[in-house]
């Protein structure tokens, strides 16, 4: 799963006249899932806990030429609850929240599409529980994915 952070976005008309977003100067990171089975006590239930790691995609390696630049990327999944009393700490926390939320939502959408169902009907089969404020970007990111990445119209998304 690739997640883009930073950069700029603007809108323009494509060849068919549809308004589409154009992303530029962003950083692409790869979200790598690790699934950990959670076995229920006294029942036959096994749930899945998905944990995320971050990698620099091979095609973007040159965008991270220093050890410091690579360490900042690794901090996204290596530091739990960074100190947010500074700008850098607040920025890291926001990146973490967005990175994991986007990766999780992309997984949900891809899993749903594997079932052969139309994406515009995802609301009939999928619900997303937002626990606490950390994934508060989920509704906006879910809409962004449906609109920008999958081409749904606003009313269908």
TrEMBL record:
<dbReference type="GO" id="GO:0005980">
    <property type="term" value="P:glycogen catabolic process"/>
</dbReference>
<keyword id="KW-0119">Carbohydrate metabolism</keyword>
<dbReference type="Pfam" id="PF00343">
    <property type="entry name" value="Phosphorylase"/>
</dbReference>
<protein>
    <recommendedName>
        <fullName>Alpha-1,4 glucan phosphorylase</fullName>
        <ecNumber>2.4.1.1</ecNumber>
    </recommendedName>
</protein>
<dbReference type="GO" id="GO:0005737">
    <property type="term" value="C:cytoplasm"/>
</dbReference>
<comment type="similarity">
    <text>Belongs to the glycogen phosphorylase family.</text>
</comment>
<dbReference type="GO" id="GO:0008184">
    <property type="term" value="F:glycogen phosphorylase activity"/>
</dbReference>
<dbReference type="GO" id="GO:0030170">
    <property type="term" value="F:pyridoxal phosphate binding"/>
</dbReference>
<keyword id="KW-0328">Glycosyltransferase</keyword>
<keyword id="KW-0663">Pyridoxal phosphate</keyword>
<comment type="function">
    <text>Allosteric enzyme that catalyzes the rate-limiting step in glycogen catabolism, the phosphorolytic cleavage of glycogen to produce glucose-1-phosphate, and plays a central role in maintaining cellular and organismal glucose homeostasis.</text>
</comment>
<keyword id="KW-0808">Transferase</keyword>
<dbReference type="InterPro" id="IPR000811">
    <property type="entry name" value="Glyco_trans_35"/>
</dbReference>
